[in-house]
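Researcher: Structure prediction, please.
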Amino acid sequence: MGLRKKKIAPETTPLAKKDLKAKIKELRKLEQWAFRLRHRRTDFYEYLKGVHNLCDWAEPKTSGLVGRRIAKLCHLNVRAGTTPIRIVIDATAPTQDRQTKSRWAQALEYAISQKARTTGLKTFFKKHGGPGECASAMAALRKKRKRGWARK
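Model: Predicted structure follows.
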């Protein structure tokens, strides 16, 4: 009786190489659509919704695996401590600057920490003041957690 590794459900997470490539291609198209010549101010919410819908980001093992595989597929050099969400955004939004990518990653992390549903992501962002305010809230939440950790 050997020990078997627990398999991650393939129907919920795109772990196969071809599935990940298809998802990356889809997210790149969403990003291009969101910043087309005549776009609206909140069109990029659809792109963020697509990133949010990619996998279960609340599950660290699954999200970390997806992030590493996408980094490998896209030949990204990833610094230590980079979140899987940021890796996906770096891989699929090449036209955006690093501050925008950082703001989007933090906003999505905040939405995940607040258990926002993918279907109501646009409403969640509107309710909380947009991705910029959500990113600020996530930074404050991290600071609060770090301060609480140091006291114990």
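Model: The mean pLDDT is 85.
Researcher: Thanks, that helps.
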